[in-house]
Amino acid sequence: MAYEKRLDGRKLDETRPIEAKTGVIERADGSAMFKIGDTIAYAAVYGPRELYPRFMQDPEKGIIRVNYNMMPFSGSGDRIRPGPNRRAKEISMVIEKALLSVVDLDKFPNSVVDIFIELPQTDAGTRCAGICASAMALADAGIVMKDLVSSVAVGSVDSTVVADLSYDEEAYDGVVSDIPIAILPNTEEIVLLQMDGEISKENLLKAVKLGKKVCKDIYKIQKKAIKEKYELKGESKKESASSGKGGDKNE
Amino acid sequence: MSKLLTKDKEVVVPGEHLAEGMDYLPGAGTYREGEKIISSVLGLTRIEGRAIKLIPLSGKYLPKRGDMIIGRVFEIAFSGWRIDTESAYQAMLNMREATSDFIPKGANLTKYFDFGDYIVCKITNVTSQNLIDITMKGPGLRKLKGGRVIKVNCHKVPRIIGKKGSMVSMIKKATDCKIIVGQNGVIWLQGEDPKMELLAVKTIKKIEKEAHINGLTDRIKKYLEKETGKKIETDRGEQ
Description:
The complex is a heterodimer.
Chain A: E1 18-22, E2 30-36, E3 39-50, E4 63-70, H1 86-100, E5 111-121, H2 126-140, E6 150-157, E7 160-163, H3 167-170, E8 176-184, E9 189-193, E10 196-197, H4 201-228, H5 234-243
Parallel strand pairs in A: 4-5
Antiparallel strand pairs in A: 1-2, 2-3, 3-5, 6-7, 6-8, 8-9, 8-10
Helix pairs in contact in A: 1-2, 2-4
Chain B: E1 3-4, E2 11-12, E3 17-20, E4 25-26, E5 30-33, E6 36-39, E7 43-48, E8 51-56, E9 68-76, E10 80-84, E11 90-94, H1 95-98, E12 118-126, E13 132-135, E14 148-151, H2 157-161, H3 166-175, E15 177-181, E16 186-191, H4 194-210, H5 216-228
Parallel strand pairs in B: 4-8, 11-13
Antiparallel strand pairs in B: 1-3, 2-7, 3-6, 5-6, 7-8, 9-10, 9-12, 10-11, 12-13, 14-16, 15-16
Helix pairs in contact in B: 3-4, 3-5, 4-5
């Protein structure tokens, strides 16, 4: 039997509900929360700041360091052993490479930008949520970037191409493939593409195309969330409306 | 045909298309890709004739020669002090630049500036590797005694100072506080009345939060008048 109706009743190209917000961590230089279905990612950006040990310093440009971490209680029951493991280290590395393609730290030699991705709750698609959150947090921190990065997991479940797989779909009894993809939304350049499982060539091409489309929708949500922090709220809105054009013009 | 894709004073995120065509020029915070002008930081657009630039809304302080900053002594070296500048780089205050007094060989340098002291200083040089040299020789450059230090986003400093210092002098007048604003976003305040000192801190935080919204000076004036209960006269009728 083919997989026609999705387990949670979504359309094939529909993502789980997304929520995004920036400025969620007060003491960080930039921060963001990205929630997709039951997967929640927080990203905190610190820096550019001094980098030690010294041998890691690059005298030509600043570097970035990504730390991906699933919290012990984030899984679906068993406690996840805290600390870096092989999986977390690899994911940190691929996210770092994906983000490195957009950030420009030429003005900050010998420095580092630290990105901490924390996942308090997970239900598949964590590296994609992490990438979305870190791109927003980097922008929030005022880092020079040529574009944002949007990311989503696509794949096929029983030869049906779907977007944003949930954990239940990844664990579906049949041939499943899971393809996390990250793109620069304005140029469609792919900065991350991984695959788990099996997929036919036609479906792979279809899935990548779908991924690009979904990423662009996610980009709109990211953009809105970053700008929301700077919108007027409540009292000051009325006041500035009444003072109108008489406002100050200095910088 | 050139086309503008944004308005003046709009918040844009990195990667947004601001204009198309060669009639517009990319300014600070933007870059050109083919025919397009694209933003590279989170900022507020400013269109000045043909040039499009961005005023950043966030980001760390980048040291610049001639800036007056407030720093903290965190290390004492053989020939001077190392100063934390709230940027990605530390500054070096040489003995010769620290004071006009004669410092004998092997003297205890903590006599002049101790660990944790805040100082007002001026950047004399920044190298390509962003090594910062600072001096204490100049009007108003000194060690800070007492008071409190707060930190704000360095990109909001021009708004906190205001046109020709109008904003900061308004806060000074309303709260009777001494205020020194460093370009690196470190601000020192000292007031006779702790309540007023707190109000000055609150006002500065309010400016930091609302700096990009129109009618800032009026709003801050109203806020200060409400909180202090006295009328504030702005000199020269500016704004």
